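Quick start: load a record and inspect it. Here is DUF421 domain-containing protein:
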Amino acid sequence: MKKEDIRFGDWKRILFGDAPLEFTLEVLVRTLLIYFIFLLVMRLMGKRMNAQLTITELAVMVMLGAIVAVPMQIPNRGLLPAVVLLLLVLFLQRGLNGLALKRRRVEVVLQGDVTVLAKDGVLQIEKLQEERVSHEQLFAQLRAEKITHLGQVKRVYMEADGSFSIFRRTPAVPGLSVLPEQDDRLRQEQPQAPNQKTCNYCGYLATPTDHTGARCRNCGQEQWVTAAE
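Running the structure step on this input writes:
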C-alpha cells in the first residue's frame, strides 16, 4: 500500500481493508470452517491440551494460532493449506508424545522433569535458582495450602508443567515462617519455638551450637531467626 492510499477518515479501508465487502461474508464462512476443524484437531490431540500446558504443548498452541489466522483473514489464501498444516502439527504432537512415552530421556528433553524445591522443611536453594522461583513465589503456594511455616512441609515438587505439588510433614516440627513480613500482627500471633532457631534464608533448623554466629550448613548464610511452630 502506498502512502497516498492512506487517508484519515477512510472508514471503508479502516473497517474492511482493501478486500471487497463481499469478503466479509466469506470471512464468516472461513471462520466457521476453521473453527470446527480446529476443534476436531484439538480433540484428537487429547485431554492434555485442555490442562496446564507443557513446553511442547504451548509451542503447539502458538503454532495452531498462527496457522488458522491467515486463511480466515486473507482473501487470496485458501483453507486447504491450513488444514494440511493443522493435520501435520497433529501428527507431530501425537508422534512426539508416543516417543516420549516409550523413552524416558525423550520425555525429559521435550517436557522437562520434576524438581524438588523443598525437602523436610528446608529449601533447596540451588534448585530454586535453577527454576528461577523466588522465595515469595514458593511461599505463596504454601500459604494457599494453609501452611504457615516450613516445618509443616515434607516435600515441594515443581512439576514439568510448572505446577506445584506439596506434601505435608507429619508430625510437623518448628520451621521458618512463610507468613508475609508486612503482616506484623499475624506474625506476632504465630506460635514460636523459643529454643529453636532457623536459617532465615533456607529454613534449615539449627542445632543449639549452629546459630551462635556460625554459617548455615545448608546455604552458608548467617541470619538466624526464632522458628515458628
